[in-house]
Design a protein that fits this description.
Helices cover 70% and strands 0% of the residues. It is mainly alpha-helical.
């Protein structure tokens, strides 16, 4: 004969008790939710309304409704088109390379070799550095006369290859991309490393018994178990990279000759250099729409891959 322990007896909770607990939880969340919505919703709605006016920072008290004129003008602006292409190129290349290099770095960091704990500890240094520090370092390395890169090229007899790297239309965009990789690849690696360490070792042991090599183990065990973290990282960094203003503005300001112009710097210049706040708001709204489409597309694509 079996007796049920008193602790195992299910006690029904009155419905009003459950509702009161939920109400208490909502009451705690409401102040923070109110602040978050206020800080995000109000500027967004205000920007959308401003985009339909000719409001200017020269005389912000006077503005008139202009309909979709700002949108039609900005879509025809060749500099806006250049900035849009650069933003899409930078986002796609940076996120793709960050995923690939992050996987490579995480695979190296998970190896059990002497000194690996030290490298794991310092892996995040580039990510925690302020962006301005990273930009100053890259600017110092690429100085035309006293930069380390040009000095090394001169010392090995390749002085003709030296140049003003950030002032060169060919290399400025590449350097901006490299700065994104320099900062974010370690963050990807640490996230992937944590996910790799959570994979049961029994799977690898069974695969080795079946004769699977390292590459097949990575492809059929490691990568499928990383799909969800890859999904999260891709969606987050599509948003971060597409919105990033610091790297471009602090290093090149969008130059030379619009070679590194991206949407955040373009919109900033329209608002604070050109004083056309309504026009700049239209650019911000277009940027928001494009970003939502990008995130939904990435989310759909990566989710489909994760469910395979």
């Amino acid at each position: 004969m079996h007796f049920r322990s008193p602790k195992s007896v299910n006690k029904s909770v009155p419905i009003w008790t459950s509702l009161s607990r939920k109400g208490f939880g909502y009451a705690i969340l409401f102040p923070a939710l109110f602040v978050i919505l206020g800080l995000n919703l109000y500027p967004t709605v205000s920007g959308i309304l401003t985009s339909f006016t000719n409001k200017s920072l020269i005389d912000p008290s006077h503005s008139a409704y202009v309909g979709f004129d700002n949108y039609l003008k900005i879509l025809k602006d060749p500099v806006f088109q250049i900035a849009l292409v650069h933003s899409l190129e930078l986002t796609s290349l940076a996120v793709l390379l960050q995923v690939i290099l992050g996987l490579v770095m995480a695979t190296l960091l998970i190896q059990n070799v002497p000194g690996i704990h030290f490298f794991r500890s310092v892996a995040m240094i580039t990510w925690v550095l302020p962006i301005i520090a990273s930009v100053v370092m890259f600017r110092f390395l690429t100085l035309p006369s006293y930069g380390l890169i040009n000095i090394v090229l001169r010392d090995i007899g390749l002085e003709r290859l030296g140049r003003n790297w950030f002032g060169d239309e060919t290399y400025a965009f590449l350097l901006v991309l490299i700065m994104h990789l320099w900062r974010n690849v370690p963050f990807y690696a640490v996230a992937f490393l944590a996910a790799m360490q959570a994979i049961p070792t029994d799977l690898y042991e069974a695969a080795r018994i079946d004769g699977a090599g390292d590459w097949r183990q990575f492809w059929f065990i490691t990568l499928p178990n990383l799909r969800y973290i890859i999904l999260v990282m891709v969606v987050l960094h599509v948003t971060f990279t597409f919105n990033n203003f610091d790297f471009v503005y602090l290093s090149t300001g969008g130059g030379p000759v619009n070679a590194t112009e991206v949407l955040p710097t373009y919109i900033y210049k329209q608002a604070w250099n050109g004083y056309v706040l309504g026009y700049a708001s239209a650019g911000g709204v277009l940027m928001l729409v494009i970003l939502v489409v990008l995130v939904l597309a990435c989310n759909s694509l990566t989710r489909g891959l994760a469910e395979e």
